Amino acid sequence: MWELALRVPNVRCEAIIPFEPMGYGLTIGQLAVRAGVNPRTIRYYEAIGLLPAPRRNPAGYRLYGPDDLGRLRFIRRARALGLSLAEIRQVLELRQAGQAPCDHVLGLLDAKLAAIERQLRELRALRRRLQALRQRGAKAARSGCICGILESGRPADGNEFSRAESLP
User: Fold this and answer.
1) pTM of the shown model
2) pLDDT value at position 168?
3) Which long-range contacts does 121-127 make (Cβ < 8 Å, 24+ apart)?
4) Are residues 27 and 61 in contact, defined by beta-carbon separation less than 8 angstroms?
């Protein structure tokens, strides 16, 4: 660790500020703060191979550097875009093998977009069913049932009986 002397013009004091250059001297806590993750997350990523095993100081403490910080930030961005840890591992492995992973990433993004479109269609269909049920709800009140509103509509799968009820 270095010390940085800070002198302010026209002031008679000098502040000594501890300063750590961005080399392989970051502890797991310092790396976690800079990357915006929990130290346990860093240990987990090491355990599953997303982060390489860190250097160690003579006392055995983990030491990290700029490459580790960059990789953690990459993983966070990829997770924020919906990539799974397995998908992120594929991207990192392609890069480590000397290949540009961008075409692979485009394929992953296309698959994510298709899944989102499918989910949106399903949600719109569910909204239409709920709106129709809501409009009929006041008329559906019946005695002798749990809730006439829910029992008056067809199940979402279109079957009158659930699989459990149809078993012998």
Assistant:
1) 0.66
2) 45
3) 126/156
4) yes
